[in-house]
Amino acid sequence: MIAMKAVILAAGKSTRTFPLTLDKPKPLIPLADKPLLAWNLDQLQGLVDEVVIVVGYKKEMIRAAFGDEYHGLPLKYVVQEDQEGTGHALLTARDLVGEEFVVLNGDDLYAAEDIEAISKKKNCLLAREVDDASKYGALRVRDGKIEEIVEKPKHYVSNLINLGLYKFTADIFPFLENIRKSPRGEYEIIEAINDLAKTTEVEYLPLQDYWLPVGYPHQVIEANNFLLQRYYQTSVLKGPGAIVGDSQFAQVTLGRGSIVGNDVKIKNSVIFPGAEIADNCIVEDSIIGDNVVLKPGTVVKGNCVVSSDSQLVTKAINR
Q: Rounded to an integer, what distance in angstroms lies between the CA atom of residue 314 and that of residue 293?
């Protein structure tokens, strides 16, 4: 095991995933029968000796769910009282990390192969090529080194984008202390990286395995489907205690304690724990929240999100 810490940035409110995060923080969104945060902790096993989790929004729920260790991996928590950006979040963890550490964006899922590879570098980030980098942080590079990260560039910079997985030395902290707020009104890690790159080499590593962004509800479904195939070799997963009648399923996770009646059709969807879906319902391309009740014959289609503890008795179709 590498004597190194990992920092997971998990303090944000994540308004893009509303209403999923109205009653829970994003790290607790269930994916393939496990909280989002648990998937990254699984990948860190054997690679780091401790994980520091930066929490803020509904922090008590995260601490209650994970406690002080995860399958033997020690966990520590630091609170970002005001969610003022990723740079500010990392700075709050300064006293809990050593001279070298890895940092994971808590909104995304990463694989052990890429975490291990980047952990062997000094100052480095994970990157991949995309067709259109205008929605991401595009990398301006020269001779394999980063010159600048341009967030959501209006003009072409490159097809390489920043994936939010980093390896830093303690050299990053003075730059985090001196960055100014971005146009979004936040202190961003990328601004500190840009300043660091002016004084020392900052490398990038091409993605080798997977990167799963979970910024929007439709990405929850996409990530769920990927995890089902990758780790369970199935397209349908029934959580513990789920009760299922004579129904049809494809690309679905049925959460713990959920109940599904007869003649139900569920496709490309995620059913959260405790949901009850009565006979003759249809659910497609949607997310059914915790403890939701769908009355007989209810139809939910088209990237719908049904908030926790709701009841539906008719159609919910997002056109």
A: 11
The DSSP result for the chain, as a single string, is --S-EEEEEE----GGGTTTTSSS-GGG-EETTEEHHHHHHHHHTTT-SEEEEEE-TTHHHHHHHHTTEETTEEEEEEE-SS---HHHHHHHTGGG--SEEEEEETTEEE-HHHHHHHHTSSSEEEEEE-S--TTSEEEEEETTEEEEEEES-SS---SEEEEEEEEEETTHHHHHHHPPPPTTSS--HHHHHHHHTTTS--EEEE--S-EEE--SHHHHHHHHHHHIIIIIS-SEEE-TT-EE-S-EEEEEEE-TT-EE-SS-EEEEEEE-TT-EE-TT-EEES-EE-TT-EEPTT-EEESS-EEPTT-EE-SEEE--
Q: Taking residues 276-290, what's their average pLDDT?
A: 96
Question: Contact, 203 vs 123, CB < 8 A?
Answer: yes
pLDDT score recorded for residue 318: 61
Strand pairing category for 100-105 and 160-169: antiparallel
Structure tokens at 100: 């070298």
**Could you tell me the two tokens for 148?**
């600048």
Q: Say what the alpha-carbon torsion angle 120, 170, 179, 140 is, to the nearest 10 degrees.
A: -20
State both tokens at 134: 């205008």
CA dihedral 77, 80, 86, 87 (to 10 degrees): -100
* Tokens (6 digits) for 26: 């994003």
pTM over 0.90: yes
For 99-113, what is each residue's pLDDT tens digit? Answer: 999 999 999 999 999
- For residues 20 and 191, what is the distance between their CA atoms, to the nearest angstrom? 30
Q: Which domains does the chain have, with CATH numbers?
A: 5-216 (3.90.550.10), 235-317 (2.160.10.10)
Structure tokens that stand for 200 in this block: 């020392």
Report the alpha-carbon distance of residue 103 to residue 8 in Å, rounded: 6
Q: Are strands 69-70 and 73-79 parallel, antiparallel or unpaired?
A: antiparallel
